[in-house]
Amino acid sequence: MFVHLHVHSPFSFLDGASAIEDLAAAAARFGMPALALTDHDNVGGAVRFHRACMDAGLKPLQGAEVTLEGGFHLVLLADGPEGYANLCRLLTAAHLDNPRGAPRVSYGRLEEYSQNLFALSGCRRGEVPALLLARRYREAEQAARRYRRLFGRRFYLELTQDLLPGNRTLNRLLCELATKLGLKTVAANNVHYAAREDFPVHDLLTCVRTGTDLEEVHPARRLNAENYLKAPEEMRALFRSYPRAWANTLELAEACRPALDLEQRRRPRFPVPDGESAAGMLRRLAFAGASRRYGRLSATVSARLEYELEVIARLGYEDYFLVAWDIVRHATEKGIRFAGRGSAADSAVAYCLGITEVDPVARGLLFERFLSPERAEPPDIDIDFDARYRDQVSAYVCARYGKEHTAWVCTYHTYRARAAVRDLGKVLGFPEAEIDCLAKLLPYVPADGIERALDFYPELHDPRFREPRYRELYRYCAAVAGFPRFLGTHPGGLVISGVPLVTVTPLQWAAKGVVVVQFDKDDVEALDLLKFDLLSLRTLSAVEDTVAAVRHHTLDFDYDRIPEDDPGTFAMFGRGKTIGVFQLESPAQRALQSRLQAREMEDVIASVALIRPGPLQGNMVEPYIARRRGDAPVTYLHPRLKPILEKTYGVVLFQEQVLAIATAIAGFTPGEADRLRRVISKHRSQREVEAIGEEFVRRAVASGVAANTAREIFDCLRGYAGYGFCEAHAAAFAVTAYRTGYLAHHYPAEYFAALLSNQPLGYYSPRTLCTVVKSRGVGLLPPDVNRSGTRFTVEAGNIRVPLSQVRGMSARDLEIILTARTERPFRSAEDFFSRAPVDKDVAINLILCGALDELAPNRRALLVRFRRRRGVDGGLFPDEPPGGGWPDFTASEKRCYERHILGLDVGPHPVARWRAALEARGYLTTIALEDCPEGAPVRLVGLPVRPHRPPTKSGRVVVFFSLEDEYGLADVTVLEDCYRAGGWILFAVPGPVEVRGRVQRRGGALSVLAEEIKFLEWA
Amino acid sequence: MPRIVDRPVAVVTDSGGRPAGFCWERGKRRVVRIEDVWKEAGRWWAGETEKIFYRVEAESGGVYELYADQGEWYLYKIYD
Q1: What is the residue-averaged pLDDT of chain A?
Q2: Cα distance from B55 to chain A (closest Cα, Å)?
Q3: What are the residue boundaries of the structural domains of chain B, listed by start?
Q4: In angstroms, rounded to a whole number, what is the distance separating the alpha carbons of residues A1011 and B13?
C-alpha cells in the first residue's frame, strides 16, 4: 500500500487548493492507511488535519516542508510527540530569528533539533535535487551526506514523478546517489490539491501569491496538473521502475509514532506561596473576597462558594482562576480600568476574586452556564481593559509566566466573497474598476455564496455580473471559500501554557509585531492551552477620559459610585436618545428604549439581551415589551416557572433560565440541563433535539407535570433557547451601559469629546457623533493652531477639534507645532510657518480647515501666500486677481474642505445648505418629524447612516438605517418591495437621499416606513 | 541551438502510445530512445488541452521534441 508523505493544504497559504477534509477523504477513499500534512513552514492545519484523519480512519502524519537558509526546501515528518516538539522548535526559530514572512531554518538549528524527525529531500527546491538538476553532482552528494549525518537512516531521498521535464534523469541520479550513500528512496507526488480538476484553482492561487496574471510566466507556476492526490495504483504505475521507493512510503508511515496528543494537560501552574496548594490559595482568596463583597457570609453564599470551589478543584481549574485573579490584581494596583464580561459573571468565586462586578448569588445566576462538571469545555474568562493600557497588562502576564509560556492566539483570515473576487478577478484579467465595483457592492457573504447573493440583492442586478466570464470567476471564488489567506492576531486571546509553548506550537511574528502561536482559538482549546481574553475596550478609555475631564470642575466625581436610579438618565433612555451610550445606541436599541421606558437596572440588562439577532428573529421582543408595559398579562405555563421567569415577565430571555427550567420541571442535573441548552441552542440535528425533548417530557411527567404542559414548555425552550443570551454577560455589560448613559446625560461635552478622542469606537462615525452632540446644545469649535491639542477637549462647554484630526497630520508635525507653541503662542500666520515648519500638505490642510483663521481669516489669500513662500506651484490661483486682494472661499467651499480634511462638520451640516429650498418644497426636518402623527405622509432628506439588513425569521429583507440631517437622526424602515424598487441604492452609492414614507409610532418609538427612496438629484 | 518548428507530423506509436517513428522532411525517422517525457497544461484558461511532450533521439542521431495534442502529433523542436 502507498502513503502520500508530501502533501500541502490551504495552510500553505496560496499553495494548496483543496481543503484538509477533502484531502483526507480522498486518501480514505483510496484505502490508504495514513496521510501526511507538510505545509510550508507551519503546522497551522495540524489540529484540523488530526481530526479529519481520525474521522476518515487514517493515521495522521504531522510534518512541514521547511525552508532552509539558502532557500532550499526540506520535508520533515514528526515521529511521536518528541519529534513534533522538535519540529515546533525548528519552525519557531525559523520564524523568530528571521524577518516576518521569511522563515529560514539554519543548519545549526537543524543539527540541534533533528532527533525524532524523518526527513525527505523534498521537491525540486530541495537542496539535493536542486544541485543535481544544476549538475553540481559533488555538492549534491555532500549535501546528502550532511543530511545523512543529521538524520541517519531517517533521511530519505524523495523521488517525484509529476511529469516535469527532467524527472527521469533526476530520479535516476537520486537513485544512484542513494545506492552510493546507502540511503533509502521514497516516492512522493508533492500533492497540492486532491483531484486533477483542482489544478486551475491552484494555478490561480499561485498567480495571486506571485502577483502575476494568467498570461504571465512565473517559475513558481506548475507546468501541468499532475500534483494531485493520486491513487496507490496510479503511483505504483508511475514508479514501476522504482518499486522500493513506492513500498518505502508505508514503511515510513508505520514507523512514525502519533505526534499530536490532544489529551495531554498543558494548563499553567500559578506560583503559589510555599506550603500552600493552588486549591488552598483559591479558597483563601475567595472567602476573603466574599467578606469584602458581602460582609457577613450567609449560608447561601458560603454553600455557593463551597460548591463552586469543589467543581473548580474537580476539573483542575484552580490555577486558571488564580491566574485571572492575579491579572486583575495587577490592573487594580496600576489603576487600569477593567470589567469582566461573559459567562464568568455566573461565578461567585470570580465575583469574590474581583474579576467580575455582577453578584451571581443576588441575581440567582447558575454557575453551570460558566463551568459544568459534566462538560469537558474549559471555562472562558474575558476581561475588558482600558484600550490604552491593555498591552501593559499583557506585558505583565508575559513577564510573570515567561516568554516561553505566553503568546497571542492567531486568527486565520479566510477567503470570503469580496477578497476572493478581488484576488481572483485580478488574476483572471478583469479590469480593476469592474472588480472594485463588484467587490464594493457585495455584502458580507461567503466566497461560495456569490451566485445566491446575485439573485437576492437588487444592487447586484447589473446584467454584466451575469456574463459567462463572471460566472467563471464565481466558480473559482467558491472553490477557495474558507481557505486561509493570511495569519493575523486575535484581538485579545493570550495563551498561558504550563509547558513550554514551543513543544506544542511554533511561534511566529504577527503583523502587529507580537508573537503568536500558529493555532486559532478553537485549535488552542483542543490542545488544552488555556486562553485568557484580555480585550481592549475603547469605551473604558473614553470613560477614563471623561472622568478626568469632569474632575476639572467636579473634584469628587466617582464613576464607580454613580447612582443606579438616576431619573435623568432613565428619562434620556426613554426618549431613545442613546447615541454614544455603550450597547444601547443602535437604531433597534434606541427604538426599544423609547418603547420600554426603562426605570431600573433590570430593564437595562434585559435591553442588552433583547436586541440580538436571536431574540429579534425569535419574536421575543414584542411579548417582553407588552408584558413589561402592562399591556399583556404575565402568565406562566407552570407554577414552578414563576420564580425563574418572574424577573423577565414570564418570557425566557436568558440562557441561565433554560438551565433552571430544565432542573425545576424535569429534574435535570445542572450538567444535563447545560447539555440540553447546548443541543437546542447550537441547532444540532433534529434527531438529537427530539431525543432530548422526549427525555425532558418523560422526566417532567415523572416529577408531576402534565405531559401536554411539559411538551409546551419544551417547545417554548426550543423556540427561545436558540436565541437566548447569557444573563451574566448582559448584566456585566448593563453596568457599563447605564453608567455611560449617565455620563452622556450629565456631561455630554466631556463624554462626547472622549468618544471622539477614542475612535474608532461604537456604532456611529465621528461625523454623526458631532451632529448628535450639537443637537444636545454642545458647540463644536474648529481646530486652532494656538488652542487645539492632540485630543478633543472641552472649552467652556463646547468641544474643540484637535490638530490630530487634520488629515495627514503626523506625530512629528504635531510635535513641531506643540513644541513651538510652548515657547509662545503663534502671533501670525507667518510666525506659525517660520516656527512650525510642518509638511507642506499638512500646512495647506491646516489653512483650508480653518486652523489658522484666528491668525489670518482669509483662507484663500493665506493659501496663496503660503504657496509663494514655499515656492509651491500656484495651482488654481497662480496670479493676483485684477485690482488685488483675494476673495476668501465661499462658505460652501469652506464646509467642503473642512469635511474632507477633518472627517466631520465643524460648521453647518451639509443638508442645512439646502434647507430653505427643502422647506419650500415641503420636506420636513428630523426634529419636525417628532410632531407628526401616526400614518402621516412625510418627505425627508439626509445622509443615510449605516444601512443594514439583519436576518429575519421569514427570510424577507428588511432594511434599517438612520437618516441624518442638521438636527439629528430619524430611523427609517424599508420593507422588501421598497428595497427592491430603489431602496437598494443605500448599499450602492454614497450620498444624500430623499425618503418618502409614513410616520410609524409604536409605543413611543418613532420611525418612518419608507415608500420610496431615491437620490437627491438636485443636490 | 534548438529550432522551433511546431508543425503537424505523422507519427507511428508503440503499444504504450509512445512515438516509435515519425516523418520529417520527406524522410522516415525511427526513434531509438525516448530521452524525456513531460506534460504541459498550456493556457488552460483559453481552452487549451494538456499536451504530452517527448524528447526523442532518432536513429540518425538527431534529437527532436514531439507532442501529442488531442490525437494529433506535432514536431515542436529540433536540436541541431
Answers
A1: 93
A2: 9
A3: 2-79
A4: 75
Distances (CA, A) of A730 to A346, A352, A610, A654, A655: 11, 19, 9, 9, 11
Q: Tell me, yes or no, if A213 comes closer than 8 A to chain B by beta carbon.
A: no
Query: What ipTM did this prediction achieve?
Result: 0.93
DSSP label of A531: E
Query: pLDDT tens digit string along A239-268?
Result: 999 999 999 999 999 999 999 988 888 888
Residue type, B75: L
Q: Pick the residue of A170, A217, A223, A234 with the most B CBs within 10 A to test the interface with B by mutation.
A: A223
Residue positions counted in chain B: 80
pTM score of the predicted model: 0.88
Residues of A whose CB is below 8 A from B65: none
CA distance linking residue A188 with residue A378, whole number of Å: 40
What would the pLDDT profile of A789-814 be if each residue is shown by its tens digit? 999 999 999 999 999 999 999 999 99
In three-state secondary structure terms, A705 is coil
pLDDT of residue A593: 95
State the best of A133, A163, A201, A227 to mutate against chain B, taking most chain B CBs within 10 Å. A163
Least CB–CB distance from A225: residue in B35, B37, B41: B41
Distance CA A802, CA A786 (A): 11
**Which of B39, B44, B45 is the closest to A163 by Cβ?**
B39
Q: Check: CB of residue A998 under 8 Å from CB of residue A1008.
A: yes
Mean pLDDT over residues A877-881, rounded? 57
Cα of first residue to Cα of last residue in chain B, in angstroms, is 6
Residue in A166, A169, A224 nearest the CB of B50: A224
- Edge to edge, what strands does the sheet with A530-537 contain? A338-341, A382-386, A530-537, A484-496, A406-414, A515-517, A507-509
